[in-house]
Each structure stands twice: as C-alpha cells, then as structure tokens.
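Model: You mentioned two targets. I'll fold them one after the other.
Researcher: Yes, keep them separate.
Model: Target one:
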Amino acid sequence: MDSLQEPYLQLPLFFPDGSRLNFYQHKEELLTALQEGGFEAPSSVFKRLEASREIYELGAPVFLFSNFHKLSNFNTPPFKKVALKLYKLDFLRTMHQANRSAFRDTRLVQLFDRYATYNGSSPYRCPATLNMIAHLENNIGACFPEQGMYSIVDALYRLALKLKVEFRLDTPVKKIQVEEKRVTGVITDQGVEPLDCLVSAGDVRYTINHLLNDYPYKQIVNRMEPSSSTLIFYWGINRTFPELELHNILFSKDYKSEFKHLFREKILADDLTVYIFISSKIVRTDAPQGCENWFVMVNAPADHGQQWEEMVARARRQIVAIINQRLSTDIESHIITERIATPVDIKRNTLSMQGALYESSSNSMFSAFLRHPNQAFGISNLFFAGGTVHPGGGIPLCLASAKIVDEEIAKSL
C-alpha cells in the first residue's frame, strides 16, 4: 500500500463570531493556539481528550473490534471489563450534555459536538460514548495516503489480484438465492452463480429489501431512523488559499437548529456548517499549479422526496456567503469548474437507501444494539460488511467490519 503521510498537523476552525482556532495535534502548539485565541483554560480541552481516550480504550474492543451480537463473546475479558466499568462509557448522557458540562466556551462545545456527524448523527441525541471519536482524531491522529484516498482502494484491489481474487465488475446482483436457510448462489443477468458463502458489502437495507425474500429482521431495519446524508460541491478553484489546510471547518451560528432541521424537519437550515477538504494541499498533482481542488460539504437530510433543486440552489448561495465572510474573499469569481452531488445522487450511485451515508443514525443509547450484525439472521452462510452494519461507517470501521466477517467465516465454515 502507498505509504501514509504523518498525521495532519492542524485543523483550521472558523467560528461565526470571527474567531479562529488552529486545532493542532501537537499538544504544545495546541496549548499556544488556545491561549492566543482567548479560549478557556486549555486544561479543559486536554481533560476532554483524556476522557475520550478512556472511553475508547474501554469500549473499542467490545463495540468496534468484535462481533458485538454474538452471545459467546460476552464471556471474554473485554466484555467482562466493560460490564464492571459500564458507567465510564457515559451512555446515559448525550454527546452535547457531556461537552456542555466539560466546557464553558460554547465554541469548544460546538467543536467537540461535531464528532456526532462522523456517523451521521446529532450530538443532541446520540450517546456521549461517541466522544471516543475525538481520541482517534486528536490523540492518535488521522493520516493521509501520499497518493490520496483512492490509493487505499487501489492497493486493496492489487493485493486481491495477487491472491487470485476474480472481479466481475458491472455485474449487478438481481437476487440472492436461499435454500434451506443457506445461500446457494446469486442471480445476475448472466445466470446463477453458485456460492459456498456470500458477503454483502453494500447497503444492508437495500440487500434485505431488494435481494432477499422474507428476511426476519426486515421490519426492524426499516423502522430505524436513517443517518444524515450530504450535499457536496466539487469546485475547481483558480487560486490558492494559504490560510486553509487539508481539512477545514466553518461553523454555523446555531448548531442545534442545524440538527433540528436535519432530523426533524428533514430540510437544510438557513445557516450551515461548511467543511472544505483540499487534497491538493498534500497531493500537489490533484490540481493545476496555482489552483486548488475543493470538496465542499454540508450535512444534509436523507432523501424523503424533498425539493432538492430548490434546496441545493439556496444552500449554494448560503455556502458562498459563509465562505466569503469567513475568508474575506469573493469565492464565486474563483470557481472555474463545478460538480454537485445530492442525497438523490448518492442513493442512485451507491444503492444506499434514501442516500443515507451510514444507513441508520446513532441517535439513541440503543443504536449500537440495533445496528445490523455482521452475520445474517437465519441464513448461516450470509455475512454483512461495510459502513451500514456493525460497527459503523467510515473507512476504519468498514475495515473493522471486514476483519470481523473474516473471523466469523473462518469459524463457521
């Protein structure tokens, strides 16, 4: 696999009051940035990060890296340890409640609340257990492949070819054939392909609703609240912005209203938090010299048949205004190419139900228990991997699900 860059050194954060914070991963630099930016006692930030570490080290072996739905695992040391220290997982409070009690500075509350979006949830409803995400990003550090994110896919593909894996691309599965509670094959336009074992890495709800007949867990899966989706603007920018880094966040004025619109009203709020990713900051060849490639994203509701054309146009105007105000620029004059992806596009291109990025949200303390397990109910040789099943979305957790499935297949077959 292509080598990884060192963890990115800073995350520029732009707040609605005009203040700015470079959230460094090096603790000494972060301490200086917090002091110079007039933020509250930096010790509260380091205390929050240490608490996130404790949650992760206690909960990750159980909730992320093992088959959480297998009863026999509850007799293993990690599960027993969690049982004795269950209160430390902080699942009785919401993420926002935990962060509000940790910080007086509302900017820091908003900063740490944003980790709920990493699995398409609301910080005002998801359990504070998810604060463990802050540990992964800030204590451990997020790395970036030297040749970009797609190099991970390419490396796995090349490794699979070395292992004699046969790929049949552009061959959609029409139906999964099940006989006597076992998968016997998949049906495509080319006929029936016999199988000893099947792993579905697509959206679990699509698999259950469209590829299987009479699946026992169907009603439960379909009742679960979908996660958020996203609205993305791919912009070619004809200049560089030295004040921006690989990842950048421009926060909204009213975070609570933003999530209320996402999950209750299922529309975009009037004020949005804008995330800007610029891979050419590291992979210079991703944009022409003197230019940048901007991946501009805002959280969006899953598709429920909304008037997306109208919402996209309004969101674009808002995003442009926010960028102009925070960066003191006229970004419209620098956009030379544009492509847009909506939840409808995501649904069509990935077969994800309603365009939800992570299948179901984690907007309750029971979400981890209700997320679909990695092995099918009542079908012994059908397994599920990917971001829509246990343990959740994002590249690291998708790979964790694949590892869990690999172990379960070895045990069952």
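Model: Target two:
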Amino acid sequence: MGTSYSVTLPGADPGEEGSVSAAVRAELELVDARMSTYREDSELSRFNRHASSEPFPLSEETHAVLAAAEAVSALTGGAFDVTVAPLVDAWGFGPRKRSEPPARADLERLRGHVGWQRLSVGASDASATKKAPQLQCDLSAIAKGYAVDRVSDTLARLGFADYLVEVGGEVRAGGRNAEGQLWRLGVERPDESGRLVQRILNVSDIAVATSGDYRNFREAEGGRLIHVLDPRTGRPAETRVASATVLDPSAMRADALATAMLVLGEAKGIELADRENFEVLLLVREPEGRVREAPSARFRARMSH
C-alpha cells in the first residue's frame, strides 16, 4: 500500500514471532492484491479498467470495503467518495505523479466521471456496477483502515487480547500495553518541521485514524494544495481544519470519516459528529497561525475523564 506498518504484541512468546509475522503479512498482502491502485494486477485496477455497465464480480473483501465506502458517502453527503480516482491522478496525488494542476476544461470533464451515486454496490451479491463506464475508484482513504481491522481480527483469533496495530498511521489498540496500562497514542500537532504531539490519548479496544494537511501537500501558485480532494468541487479541499482524528471500533470507518471531516470543515464536521455520536477531534488553523482544538461532544467527554 505504499506505506509502513507495525504490530506490537506485549504478551507474545518470542517463539511465535515467525508464525505471527507470516499471518500479518498474509493479511496485508491480501488487501494490497485486492485494492492497490499501484498494481496493474490488483482487483481494483481490473475493476477500474472495466469500462462497462455490466456487474463486475468482486471478492468478499473488496465488496465489503466498497459497501462501507458507500455508507460513509451517504452519511457525509458525498464529502467522502471513492470514485475520485481520476481527480487524484489529475492532481498528481496518485500513482502517476505530476506537478502542474489540471486545466479547468480537463477538470470539468473529469468531474463528469465522478460521483458515488454512479456506483452501485451489490446488496445481495459481491459485485459492483458502474452507471458511468469511465468510473474509477481509489480506496486509499479506507483500505489502510480495513487492513488494520483484518490484522487486528487475525491477532484476536490467534489468541492475542493485547496488541497495537498500525498501518500508514491508522491504529487499532486491543487490551493493554506491556505495563498493563491503557495504550498511549499521540495526536500529532500540524507542523511540517517535526513530529510534535498535540494531545495524548489513553485508549483500549478502539481504532484511531487521523487525516491531515501537513504531510502530503504541494505548494502551487495560489497556495497549498493538500492531497485530500473535495469530491464535490474536484479540487483539493479548502479548509482551516489541519487534521481530523476519529475514534471508532472500526479502523476502516474511522479512516474514511477522518478524510470526510477534513473535507466538511469544522462546522459541518462537528455537526455531523454530534448528530451521529462520533468521537472526533479537529485541529483548526487560526488566521494568526495558532492551532485550536475543536472536539465533538463525545470526545469532550473523553477529555473530562
């Protein structure tokens, strides 16, 4: 998936390392083989080349991720949308790198091929149907979370109650750390100069996902272009939200919601979080340069404990 991963098992027997590592790698390889946009032989790449309105048969794994993506798209009014693949490529944030922003005419043409409602995910079978043959999907904002869930569930099946799984910054924690305490996770302060911690979270049996504007971006005439696109405009999201952190039992859903929160912005993002009882922390850039915390009601409850 073009990123790194780590697994921490405080209660593991050193003799188990080989077999556990093999099980973890098998899960990550499965997700990569299904959902990579960098591999021409991946299931997702084959689906993207499927320029037809005939149903495309999917594996159980890819179908589950597309169904989850559809649910988050509906919930967020399209702020999260996996059909943005053509726009991701056009802006140079996909496998094909480019430095120049797309021409306005090209952007308008590509926007005509984007829209989560143009993708129908099978409700009774593992398939997906394109309502527009040119439709293409990019699962980068949800597949890492899905991989975290698969690895975590595999570790639980192997008998590990205590674990910390991280893939590309998305995390799921189970049980306790080596000291028998809650896992301590840092919410990073938006700062390109170094790894600074804004807040420490003490967590167990939950996933934490963060989407931010301070690692993957490009400077261009007119300002900073971040890698998170607003599917509704076809352009990089223009928001004062520097990062969005979501806590949820599902790393897959937390991953997708963190991206959506960055696109929605502070007011609409917190409104959605409070309506749906999501645990969300937004870090908002103020005009004078400082960063302000904007927590949802459920996150504020965590802070008060």
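Researcher: Noted. Anything on target two?
Model: The longest strand covers residues 241-248.
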